[in-house]
Amino acid sequence: MARLGIEPAAIVPAQIDETPHKAELPRDYALRMAREKAQAVDASGHVLAGDTVVAAGRRILPKAEDQATARQCLELLSGRRHRVLSAIALKSPDGTLREKLSETVVRFKRLSEEEIAAYLASGEWEGKAGGYAIQGSAEGLIAWIQGSHSGVVGLPLFETRALLKAAGMTIG
C-alpha cells in the first residue's frame, strides 16, 4: 500500500474458514477468499482484502506450515510452470463490493536437492502459499514470470490501484 502512497488506517485480520470447497477451482477460490475476508471485517470506511493462491494445474497448493509441506511444494514446482492468482476485494462504506484478479505464470528452474535444502533452511517458506516467497531468495530460483511480480508477492499493485480509483479514491 505504501508503494501506492496509501497508509491503511488499520490492519485487521479476517477470521474466516479458508478451506477450499470440494472441486473448487483455484481462480474461484482466490476470489471467494478475498470477498469473504472483505465482508468479514466490520469497518465504517473502505475495506481492502486479498488472497494469493499458488496453483499447479487445478490443484491449490497449501500455505506451507511445516518443512515437509514446503518440500513437497518445491519438488512439485521444480522445473515447471505454475500460476499465482492474487485476488483483491474492496468493500465500500455503502456495502458495494468490487473485485479484481491478477494471474501470473511462474516457472522455477529444475531445483537440485541442495537448492531445496538451502531454501528450506532459510525459513522464508513459512506460511507462504506454495512454499515460497518470490521477494526473498526464491527469486534466484525462478527462470521467468509472465504477469505481475507484485501479484506473486501478494498484493497486485496495478489491480489494487485500479480498484481503488474505481471506488473514487484519490491515488497518487
UniProtKB/TrEMBL annotation:
Instruction: Pull one GO CC term from this UniProt entry.
Output: cytoplasm
SUPFAM superfamilies named among the record's database cross-references: ITPase-like
Recorded GO molecular functions are: nucleoside triphosphate diphosphatase activity
Required co-factor(s) are: a divalent metal cation
Per UniProt, the enzyme's principal EC class comes to hydrolase
Location comes to: Cytoplasm
Reaction it catalyzes: a 2'-deoxyribonucleoside 5'-triphosphate + H2O = a 2'-deoxyribonucleoside 5'-phosphate + diphosphate + H(+); a ribonucleoside 5'-triphosphate + H2O = a ribonucleoside 5'-phosphate + diphosphate + H(+)
Keywords assigned by UniProt?
Cytoplasm, Hydrolase, Nucleotide metabolism
The protein's job, in short, is: Nucleoside triphosphate pyrophosphatase. May have a dual role in cell division arrest and in preventing the incorporation of modified nucleotides into cellular nucleic acids.
What HAMAP family does the annotation carry?
A: Maf (MF_00528)
Which family does this protein fall into?
Belongs to the Maf family.
| Protein name (record) | Nucleoside triphosphate pyrophosphatase
Query: What is the scientific name of the source organism?
Result: Erythrobacter litoralis (strain HTCC2594)
